[in-house]
């Protein structure tokens, strides 16, 4: 079998046996870590976003049927942000990194956006950046595939999910779950 084809098929097969719960992910991480298998990591941080402080509308698009709300932006809006990632939902908890990027509202109803996301992390045992792209939903869980990484995240594969925790007040909060795996040839950066 061609080696290039093998590198394409193996990651796809791993999706078929992916764990479905946080408990299973934690169990699999511990099992793989101790059995000498592939490295993996699963952790949760909280994005704290404050409009006109850490996030700004650059272009306000055309308002849809519901206008602009915390769960809908005008179609075609360009939104940029550089938000802190905290250890807990409390905005005063320890900052573990930052998430910056651009969103362009891509649905007429305003509930969906195309997202480019750069996440800089400084965690115990992991330091570096992740690059994710995908479609974000303001009112449901969103999944963003990982397309690259630097530092300890070099060669990492996986995804992150976001879900709303608090959408009221000056600062909104989203739960960000990271699920990462490294292929066997990826040596730790440090």
Provide a brief overview of the structure:
The two termini are 34 Å apart.
Please characterize this protein's 3D structure.
This protein is mainly beta and 190 residues long. The chain starts with a helix and ends in a 9-residue tail after the last strand. A hairpin with a 4-residue loop joins β6 and β7 (142-149). It has helices at 3-16, 22-35; strands spanning 40-50, 55-59, 78-86, 95-105, 112-123, 126-137, 142-149, 157-166, 171-181. Strands 1-3-4-5-6-7-8-9 form an eight-stranded antiparallel β-barrel. 26% of the residues are buried. The longest helix is centred in the first third of the chain and has 14 residues, at 3-16. Mean pLDDT is 81; it is low at 3-35. It is globular, with a radius of gyration of 18 Å. The protein contains two helices and nine strands, in the order ααβββββββββ. It has a single domain (21-181), classed as AOC barrel-like (Beta Barrel), CATH 2.40.480.
CATH class: Mainly Beta
- Main sheet properties: 8 strands, antiparallel, barrel
Kindly identify the CATH topology. Answer: AOC barrel-like
The name of the CATH superfamily reads Allene oxide cyclase-like
Distance, first to last CA: 34 Å
* String of helices and strands: HHEEEEEEEEE
- Total domain units: 1
Overall mean confidence score, pLDDT: 81
Q: Which word captures the global form?
A: globular
Q: What structural class results from the helix and strand content?
A: mainly beta
Tell me how many strands there are.
9
Name the poorly predicted regions: 3-35
């Amino acid at each position: 079998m061609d080696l290039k084809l093998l590198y394409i098929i193996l990651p796809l097969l791993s999706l078929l046996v992916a764990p479905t719960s946080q408990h299973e992910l934690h169990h699999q991480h511990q099992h793989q870590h101790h059995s000498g298998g592939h490295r993996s990591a699963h952790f949760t941080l909280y994005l704290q976003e404050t409009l006109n402080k850490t996030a700004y509308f650059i272009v306000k698009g055309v308002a849809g049927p519901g206008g602009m709300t915390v769960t809908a932006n005008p179609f075609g809006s360009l939104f940029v942000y550089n938000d802190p990632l905290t250890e807990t939902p409390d905005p005063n908890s320890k900052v573990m990194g930052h998430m910056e990027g651009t969103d362009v509202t891509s649905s007429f109803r305003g509930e969906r956006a195309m997202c480019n996301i750069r996440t800089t992390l400084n965690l115990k045992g992991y330091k570096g950046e992740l690059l994710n792209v995908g479609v974000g939903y303001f009112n449901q869980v969103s999944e963003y595939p990982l397309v690259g990484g630097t530092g300890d995240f070099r060669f990492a594969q996986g995804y992150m999910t976001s879900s709303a925790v608090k959408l009221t007040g000056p600062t909104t909060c989203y739960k960000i779950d990271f699920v990462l795996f490294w292929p066997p040839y990826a040596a730790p950066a440090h």
